[in-house]
């Protein structure tokens, strides 16, 4: 991302003055890096090195070719989701956000949750495939209901939806024939938060819920099927 900044890829004037014919690839490179960086920022709890107020580069153009258009639209939707992930960190988890009062934080939570739900409603018009990302992001947005760390019913509900979404997606990947299990692990699992699993695990202990245990077992079984492609994943499976 620092290299993109030094090259001026975050500024629209860079593309307008380009005479190499590579502006399309340059723009796509910048926004791809942006998506990865925003995700990793929230994932590891670190401030983003690229702030939105300093970016005026336009999104990649969407082609008129009906065979390619959904992919371009999905990419733009991915950029918009990355922006929301950046807002989640800035408004809820940054050092400045930690100073906010509880009522103010809850106001931000509800606002961000509505933004994510609106994003997903628009995304469904682009792609009918169900992905777990939006539920995982919602779990990151919806905090415990009190300072003592109790799980709110809303947080538990979204965490359950996220794990169920993972199971549906994994099943679709297995039967589609278009993607491999390695594709699923690289492009879905590595971009998904493990928070929903932890939320359901804690709820299973607190409520002694057999349904929760069954759901967790199904998720672990899905990871078990991927272990042959990723030896490191075996350690994760054995841990649970």
UniProtKB/TrEMBL annotation:
GO BP annotation list: DNA-templated transcription
Keywords: Membrane, Nucleus, Transcription, Transcription regulation, Transmembrane, Transmembrane helix
Xylanolytic transcriptional activator regulatory domain: residues covered: 4-119
PANTHER family noted in UniProt: TRANSCRIPTION FACTOR PDR1, ZN(II)2CYS6 TRANSCRIPTION FACTOR (EUROFUNG)
Entry-linked CDD domains: fungal_TF_MHR (cd12148)
Keyword Transcription regulation: yes
Gene Ontology MF terms: DNA binding; DNA-binding transcription factor activity; zinc ion binding
Superkingdom: Eukaryota
Spans through the membrane: 184-206
Name of this protein: Xylanolytic transcriptional activator regulatory domain-containing protein
